[in-house]
């Protein structure tokens, strides 16, 4: 039977021993010796062998446990965990169990037992002990509140921070449930998230909630809750971390109140507010901001880019670059003027300004608040002022030009008259010379009369405040001009491509329109090409609600770099034509501007000319 027990012990990897106490003989099994890295023949079967394997610091504990076993005549078991030295120098934890099986009166004679290696178990226990100690320290000394809560809501364990936060002692907290100290307005949301966690829809949850302190006051907290389950996935308890955010919420409330006052003040003055969150990539546009372009709040989401898409294409690049430069710190302030497409299809001018009010941890802009102000009326007034200044400037230039012409031409004619009269009055002048001078006098008189007629025509155009207008058909007037010039058109083989559509009527001065068309078409004929087929193209256009026409030829062209400033001047000619008087374009421009229009020219020498006339 004894051998059976030994076999069992060997199979369980336990090292057994049999000690004859009075003879100081110990029989150590091969498994016992192998446990410490020795062969059977490497260790003597004596109590000294046993003693030298035990770590010296544990010998006293071993001896005390053995003595208690002896003194109690075996009633107190000999069972102790002690450390042994392995042959390789490492330390093993060994569970030593034994019993005296033979006595001589009160003297132990024979004792048997076994050794079991429990190093792995001990390491696990030590690791667990360290973890538990670490958890206890982290739990107890955490700067934020930490609690363990039962599935039913009772507090199982609380730390010092949560007690200080809520004003309760640990004992008082243990008598309460979290439901009792949660603000009523936040309880439903908390319970809903807790149930979703129990139902395994979520693993944990986070929320901002209010707690009721012992003194009745309210604090705001950031709550993070996680559920701990057992191996069978049954809920054990909740671990909750609770951080005081009362000051932050107070500051947020102050900021919201400040923003509300700012928005009220800004929108009260007709402006709109926008708020760009660069961290979350969202943007808010106030109701006034959207209503100024005819939109409602539901027409816009909080995704950036919608406003940019409405910015006029000609303004968009500068608008985007101005925003980017400000965010990148290239400019000290953000301001931009741009046109925005309204719901009705029109454009409004917006003055856009913004300022960074929050920065992230890297000192990069995190939030920008700005304003939109409708400056359409201001822009229209600026445009009207520019147009008025242009008109005044043009009139002033024409007045100076006119004064120069009057002064120069009339003085020239007067000088000619005086010179001829002086010669006629001279007694030495012969009759034949007088006859010749009389002929000169006639020519000078005719030239003076022509000059006065031209000047009178210009004055008439510029001073006529009651220009007779009526509905005219543009195509009809071009057909009439072509018919009047048909002889020259046929003579020079000019190809006329008249693209004016039928029924293009407008209210205009018939006399002016006839003169304008006749002058431009006759100029195109006069300065035709001499190297190919002369061609004149007449076309119609509408730009920004204004009607007009173009007259394009492939003639000799004009050097605008050289003659551009004098092109529409009185008595200015450029191409050496003996018939040119320099009055046609001058009068044409005056007639067009007198009707509120304008004329533009595009030309290159040898490549023809295009006159573009805005009639209205």
From TrEMBL:
<dbReference type="Pfam" id="PF08447">
    <property type="entry name" value="PAS_3"/>
</dbReference>
<dbReference type="Pfam" id="PF02518">
    <property type="entry name" value="HATPase_c"/>
</dbReference>
<dbReference type="InterPro" id="IPR004358">
    <property type="entry name" value="Sig_transdc_His_kin-like_C"/>
</dbReference>
<feature type="domain" description="PAC">
    <location>
        <begin position="205"/>
        <end position="257"/>
    </location>
</feature>
<feature type="domain" description="PAC">
    <location>
        <begin position="78"/>
        <end position="130"/>
    </location>
</feature>
<feature type="domain" description="PAC">
    <location>
        <begin position="334"/>
        <end position="387"/>
    </location>
</feature>
<dbReference type="InterPro" id="IPR000014">
    <property type="entry name" value="PAS"/>
</dbReference>
<dbReference type="InterPro" id="IPR013655">
    <property type="entry name" value="PAS_fold_3"/>
</dbReference>
<dbReference type="InterPro" id="IPR003594">
    <property type="entry name" value="HATPase_dom"/>
</dbReference>
<dbReference type="InterPro" id="IPR005467">
    <property type="entry name" value="His_kinase_dom"/>
</dbReference>
<dbReference type="InterPro" id="IPR001610">
    <property type="entry name" value="PAC"/>
</dbReference>
<keyword id="KW-0418">Kinase</keyword>
<dbReference type="InterPro" id="IPR000700">
    <property type="entry name" value="PAS-assoc_C"/>
</dbReference>
<keyword id="KW-0808">Transferase</keyword>
<protein>
    <recommendedName>
        <fullName>histidine kinase</fullName>
        <ecNumber>2.7.13.3</ecNumber>
    </recommendedName>
</protein>
<feature type="domain" description="PAS">
    <location>
        <begin position="131"/>
        <end position="201"/>
    </location>
</feature>
<dbReference type="InterPro" id="IPR036890">
    <property type="entry name" value="HATPase_C_sf"/>
</dbReference>
<feature type="domain" description="Histidine kinase">
    <location>
        <begin position="405"/>
        <end position="616"/>
    </location>
</feature>
<dbReference type="InterPro" id="IPR052162">
    <property type="entry name" value="Sensor_kinase/Photoreceptor"/>
</dbReference>
<dbReference type="InterPro" id="IPR035965">
    <property type="entry name" value="PAS-like_dom_sf"/>
</dbReference>
<keyword id="KW-0597">Phosphoprotein</keyword>
């Amino acid at each position: 039977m004894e051998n059976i027990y030994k076999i069992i012990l060997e199979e369980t990897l336990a090292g057994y021993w049999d000690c004859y106490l009075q003879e100081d003989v110990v029989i150590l099994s091969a498994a016992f010796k192998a446990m410490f890295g020795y062969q059977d023949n490497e260790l003597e079967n004596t109590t000294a062998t046993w003693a030298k394997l035990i770590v010296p610091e544990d010998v006293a504990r071993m001896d005390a446990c053995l003595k208690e076993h002896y003194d109690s005549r075996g009633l107190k078991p000999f069972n102790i965990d002690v450390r042994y030295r392995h042959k390789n120098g490492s330390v093993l934890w060994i569970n030593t169990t034994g019993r005296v099986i033979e006595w001589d009166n009160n003297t132990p004679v024979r004792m048997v037992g076994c050794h079991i290696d429990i190093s792995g178990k001990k390491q696990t226990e030590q690791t667990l002990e360290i973890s538990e100690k670490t958890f206890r320290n982290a739990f107890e000394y955490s700067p934020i509140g930490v609690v363990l809560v039962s599935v039913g809501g009772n507090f199982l364990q609380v730390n010092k921070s949560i007690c200080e936060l809520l004003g309760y002692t640990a004992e008082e907290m243990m008598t309460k449930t979290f439901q009792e100290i949660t603000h009523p307005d936040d309880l439903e949301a908390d319970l809903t998230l807790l149930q979703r966690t129990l139902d395994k829809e979520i693993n944990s949850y986070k929320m901002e909630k209010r707690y009721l302190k012992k003194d009745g006051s309210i604090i705001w907290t950031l709550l993070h809750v996680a559920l701990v389950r057992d191996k069978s996935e049954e809920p054990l308890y909740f671990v909750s971390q609770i951080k005081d955010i009362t000051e932050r919420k107070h500051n947020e409330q102050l900021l919201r109140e400040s923003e509300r006052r700012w928005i009220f003040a800004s929108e009260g003055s007709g402006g709109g507010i926008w708020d760009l969150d660069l961290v979350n990539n969202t943007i808010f546009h106030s109701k006034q901001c959207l209503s100024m372009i005819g939109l409602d709040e539901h027409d816009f989401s909080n995704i950036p880019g919608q406003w940019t898409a409405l910015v006029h294409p000609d303004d968009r690049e500068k608008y985007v670059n101005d925003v980017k430069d400000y965010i990148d710190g290239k400019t000290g302030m953000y301001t931009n003027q741009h046109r925005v497409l309204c719901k009705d299809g029109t454009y409004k001018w917006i003055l856009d300004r913004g300022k960074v009010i929050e920065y992230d941890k890297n000192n990069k802009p995190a939030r920008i608040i700005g304003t939109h102000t409708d400056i359409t009326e201001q822009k229209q007034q600026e445009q009207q002022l520019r147009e008025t200044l242009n008109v005044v400037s043009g009139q002033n230039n024409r007045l100076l030009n006119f004064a120069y012409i009057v002064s120069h031409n009339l003085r020239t004619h007067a000088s000619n008259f005086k010179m001829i009269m002086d010669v006629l009055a001279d007694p030495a002048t012969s009759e034949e010379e007088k006859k010749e001078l009389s002929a000169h006098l006639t020519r000078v008189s005719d030239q003076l009369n022509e000059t006065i007629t031209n000047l009178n025509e210009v004055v008439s155009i510029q001073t006529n405040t009651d220009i007779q207008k009526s509905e005219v058909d543009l195509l009809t007037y071009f057909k009439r001009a072509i018919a009047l010039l048909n002889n020259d058109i046929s003579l020079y083989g000019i190809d006329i491509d008249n693209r004016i559509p039928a029924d293009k009527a407008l209210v205009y001065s018939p006399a002016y329109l006839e003169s304008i068309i006749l002058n431009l078409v006759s100029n195109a004929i006069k300065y035709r090409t001499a190297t190919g087929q002369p061609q004149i193209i007449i076309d119609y256009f509408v730009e920004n609600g204004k009607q007009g026409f173009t007259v394009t030829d492939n003639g000799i062209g004009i050097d605008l770099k050289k003659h551009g400033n004098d092109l529409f001047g009185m008595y200015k000619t450029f191409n050496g034509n003996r018939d040119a008087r320099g009055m046609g374009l001058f009068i044409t421009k005056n007639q067009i501007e007198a009707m509120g229009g304008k004329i533009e020219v595009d030309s290159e020498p040898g490549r023809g000319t295009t006159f573009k006339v805005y009639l209205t």
